[in-house]
Amino acid sequence: FPNPKDKKEKTIEISYIGIAYFLRKLFKEGEFQ
Predict the structure, then answer these.
(1) Cα–Cα distance between 33 and 28 in angstroms, integer?
(2) What pLDDT, on a 0 to 100 scale, did the predictor assign at position 1?
(3) Measured between alpha carbons, how far is 9 from 17 in angstroms, rounded to an integer?
(4) Mind listing the pLDDT tens digit of every residue in the chain (33 residues)?
């Protein structure tokens, strides 16, 4: 069974990737076009 701590860290990692992707998308569509 996976370690809950590892799962939590993985979720945080995925969240940061999602935020970074969202910000890049926002900047591309926004003022830095």
Answers:
(1) 5
(2) 61
(3) 12
(4) 667 778 888 898 999 999 999 999 988 877 655
CA torsion 6-10-16-22 (nearest 10°) is -160
At residue 2, the pLDDT reads 65
Length of the chain (residues) = 33
Residues 14, 22: Cα–Cα separation, whole Å:
12
Using alpha carbons, list the distances in angstroms from residue 15 to 1, 8, 11, 21, 31.
22, 11, 6, 10, 24
Q: Which two tokens stand for residue 14?
A: 């995925």
